[in-house]
Amino acid sequence: MSSQQQHEPLNSTPTIITLYAIRTAASMIPHILLCEMKLQYDIKFLNSSNNEHKSEEYLKINPNGVVPTLIMKEEGGTDELVLFETSAICLYLTDRFPQFKLAPPLNTKERALFYQYLALLSTGIQPDMILFYYPHRYVSSEDQYATFKLETEKRIYEKFKIFDRVLSDGRSYLLGDEFYCVDIYLFILSRWSRNFEAYKARDLPHLGPYLKRIFERESVQQVFKIEEIQEPYY
After folding, report:
1. Dihedral of CA 71/72/74/79: which sign?
2. Residues 64, 53: contact at Cβ < 8 Å?
3. Which contiguous run of DSSP H or E holds residue 66?
4. Where is the GST C-terminal domain (predicted)?
5. Which of 9, 71, 72, 157 could potentially form a cystine with 81 if both were Cys, beta carbons 3.0 to 4.6 Å apart?
6. In the chain, where does the domain assigned CATH 3.40.30.10 lie?
């Protein structure tokens, strides 16, 4: 596999954590989450330019051939958990390490809304982002790419406006005053709109300042440095 980095955090755990990632991809979401928790983890960056994520070796770990993939193993043990799908990884980590309070308590209104927003992001916005960035998979003629991408932008923007309305009451984060992993998810998907022609998430009146707040968090700054992210940041 490609480059591997180990990080020495403030919070030690007997669990060995490995995250397979591609720089700037959806794997940034659990990467930021791990940094927010300040857990020790290894990150293995795959080289997408030579399709390392489609290699026989990686497909044995994640048969979908995408990132992220999380591997968890207790120190000294032989059994390991291999988990893919970004939302599943986020839910698992927040439940596995509840002391960091990166998801609302179970059986609360906030937890229900947490699930709702996570579903909207992972099944409503993220798949449309794939349409925008890979139009050749869905449109037969290059002459149709621009129209297809613009229509996709508009559809995504309407969903971003839902989050903008949620934030319009002056709250700091999606669910109020507390920062949760769903805020990381919204930030990264909003970041992907930086390449849109006309409908960038940062241009919305409440979502724009919110993105700036998330960007300034220590965990986000750390991941942007590790993954060598260049401007525009979001």
Report:
1. negative
2. no
3. none
4. 107-233
5. 72
6. 15-100
Q: What is the pLDDT along the chain (234 residues), one digit of tens a residue?
A: 555 555 545 566 689 999 999 999 999 999 999 999 999 999 999 999 999 999 999 999 999 999 999 999 988 888 899 999 999 999 999 999 999 999 999 999 999 999 999 999 999 999 999 999 999 999 999 999 999 999 999 999 999 999 999 999 999 999 999 999 999 999 999 999 999 999 999 999 999 999 999 999 999 999 999 999 999 999
- Its CATH class, for the domain covering 15-100, is alpha beta
Question: 150: which strand partners?
Answer: none
Q: Where are the beta strands (DSSP E) in the chain?
A: 4-7, 15-21, 41-45, 69-74, 80-84
CATH 1.20.1050.10 residue spans of the chain? 109-227
Burial class (CB in 10 A: 0-12, 13-18, 19+), 161: middle
**Domain 109-227 falls under CATH 3.30.565.10:** no
| Block residue for tokens 């849109």 | 196
